[in-house]
Amino acid sequence: MDLSLDESQQILVDTFSEMLEKECPTTHVRDCEDTGFSPSLWAQYCELGAQAMGLPESVDGLDMSLLELGLVATQSGLAIAPVPFLEIAAAGRLLAAVAPEDPLLAAIVEGRPAVSLALPRPHAVPGTSTTTGGRVLIPFGTIADAVIALDGETLFVAEGGDKRRSGRVEDIGASALAHWDLDQGTDARVLTSGPEARRAMTRAAAEWKLLAGFWLTGVAKRALSIGADYAKERVQFGVPIGGFQAIAHPLAECAIRVDGAELLCHEAAWADESDPTRFEMLASMAFTWASQTAIRTADISLHTHGGYGFSTEYDIQLFYRRARALSSVGGGAQEELQNVAQLCFDSDGSGEAESLLGGPR
Amino acid sequence: MDFRLGEKAEEVKREIRAFLAENFSEADRKAAAEDGGGHDWDLYRKLAANGWVSAGWPKEYGGGDRDPYEILTLYWELCKAGFPWIGLLNNGFIGHTLMAMGTDFHREEFVPKIASGEIAFALGYSEPGSGSDVAGARTMASPDGDDWLIDGQKMWTTTAHTAQYIFMLTRTSTQDRPHRGLTLFLVPTDAEGVDIQPIHTMGGERSNGVYLTKVRIPDSYRVGEVDKGWSVVRFALGLEQAMGYSDIHERFIQSAGRWSLASGPDGQRPFDDARIREQLAQTAVHAEVSRLLRHRSTWLAAEGMELGAKGAMTKSFSGTAYLEDAQNWMNLVGPAGLLKEDEDGALAEGNFDEAFRQTPVNTIYGGTAEILRSLVAEVELGLPKSR
User: Fold this and answer.
1) Closest-CA residue in chain B for A342?
2) Angle, helix A66-78 to helix A195-233, in steps of 10 degrees
3) Which of A165, A236, A271, B348 is the most exposed place for a label (fewest CB within 10 A)?
């Protein structure tokens, strides 16, 4: 057993941590609230090779693992960076797997935030949205030139800019959402079809969710440290409020859950190469738990602030809103639990599949 | 990065499963659950004969020199099988403590007998007036010639009725702050003046209250320096808190999973209901996080790294999450969930009933979740002491 990062992974963390500390203070996040996207920050990401980190060398990528992508995602979450790192990473890897010659992949490698994904949502609550075909809410749909979507067993690219894309719709997390019309129509470009198409999209969605889990873990970590710092400074009844168990214990409970989220994300990313039968289950668990943890931690931290936590002047509300938003963009924790159940206990739908619980194999 | 416990641990898993298949029948499991004492001498001596009692100790003390991953696996497999293992656990802790903090006499007189399964120890920290505030112990040990006389009362002394000794926290001074006047003794359960009375619990576990009246103990049975017992207790408690209940949590969710996929009395599968799938998944996520926290504690111990409050995190989360799951399952499954194993119509071999009765204590003994959260707040978050 070895739960530590190796030297190059630690360097990667430090590199992004330093860059984000300099380029993405919360004042910058606030400056980008109107669009949810920072072109200058994305340029910094691309300078460090982030747009092609997880792509194979054959398409000029850096051939890094999901763990390494995840470490960057956690740093991004700590800074709530307004960049489409998750979408570009997942969409790029999907294209590299099924259509390595596709021009969109070259655009990604060049650093254009060109593509987003329509995540399949088989367990969405009826009556809340369209999740396939029709109008679908797409993260960073405001800036994408194209969206990859699955319809039945056809994986296709929807392009066509403003014909398909609505204007920006404002959301609580500045997620750069736009509605995209994802009827295939006649102009969609089919990438692949049949069971392979479904498998490829399932895989891409699992990768997005795992990376979102890493990101949310970063959001939770920063929310926790903001809350703990405030609890040490804020004096009421003549003492720092962190000395009251009513304040300290909920924060401690969050600290435990945040560690659990980080471990679960790391395990899932490790499983991709070393325990592949459990990868999708663990990725789904990681998204669920990191969602629950980030939302809870931001909530506890906000309430540690009392009334100030509710004011826009304090930073904790930025994290409170974004924890919720990123989780919901992926469907949300409750919806994802349905996926977890399927993957844990009935992975092939037969009712006879061996449970994947019980630790690494 | 590597999340596997390693080949040696896998080998232990195979060995213990083979041991259980040979020595621990379904009837034994039910008898252990019925008895609730947490210790069975026949089974325990078989474990000792195979070297498992001293498996984690260094070779120089006759131990097996097994690494923390192997010991984790040993406990994990026994616990999941429903083996009465509390005695084993206590004796492992006490052995470690005597080796680290005892005298040559302790190491020669007691340690080999623990290893061979000849003797067993119960833990005597809690009292009627001191639980979480363990340093508030009032059981007095007073010098009397070369001996000590112990008077007082202990609570929750599980396995005292089957053990030969109690590892007992006593007060030897009231002059200084409470934790500076504590001393540990090894108290024979058959000494004159020791009276052990049963305490029965909702979870089916049998514990004990121990009354001590002028119990004469030679000074050679003292562990650690006089009035410096707090460091001994902290050492022993630290070993305990790094564990948690992820093993039995895993057994619970695997049982619930099997149950949900089979047809019930009405011919339908519970799994086909979204509420059941949601609860299965939430429990599975909790169990996985709980296991990971425990594995991390084990990894830190194996690597000799600073544990901080990571052990407290492990136990606090594990106790809390399993309790919450057990209660939420009961909210879902209706009256049949109330039935014990072997009752007509019981669900999942009484899984839900058993967990509902047993989990409340998980956030209490060995350090309450509340005490552990205070530790986490202070050590991991740097918050001021809150009590």
Assistant:
1) B277
2) 40
3) A236
